[in-house]
Amino acid sequence: MKTLLISFYSDIEDKTYYSDNANRLREECKSLDIQCSIQHKESLGSYQLNQASNAPTKPIKPIHKSPTKPIKPIHLCPRPPRS
């Protein structure tokens, strides 16, 4: 299964700091073969207001198909052997 990176960005006061970094992140994802969805979000005027609005108000459209087989969970801490 491939990694999917999802991100949003908003520039403030006609500065391009966040859009520049979003473009850099896209390029890095491309070079590492990581699928990404990096979307511009209209700024609400300040960093604090933008951060407060980060929870999506509508579902994010999947950009990949659901697996046809169930995903087997991976236990990072092995269970002790049964006696």
Your description of this structure?
The chain is α+β, with helices and mostly antiparallel strands and 83 residues long. The chain has one domain (1-83). Helix content is 25%, strand content 14%. The chain has helices at residues 17-31, 47-52, and strands at residues 4-9, 35-40. Strands 1-2 form a two-stranded parallel ribbon. The longest helix is centred in the first third of the chain and has 15 residues, at 17-31. The radius of gyration is 18 Å and the shape is flat.
What is the distance, rounded to the nearest whole angstrom, between the alpha carbons of the first and last residues?
35 Å
Number of helices: 2
Whole-number total of structural domains? 1
- Judging from the principal axes of the Cα atoms, what is the shape? flat
Rg, Å, rounded: 18 Å
Structural class: alpha+beta
List the strand order in the largest sheet. 1-2
Strand content: 5-15%
Rounded mean pLDDT is 77
Unreliably modeled segments: none
The H/E string reads EHEH
Give helix % range.
25-40%
Quick recap:
With 83 residues, this protein is of the alpha+beta class.
Spell out the blueprint of helices and strands.
Layout: E1 4-9, H1 17-31, E2 35-40, H2 47-52
Name its key features:
two-stranded parallel ribbon, alpha+beta, single chain, 83 residues
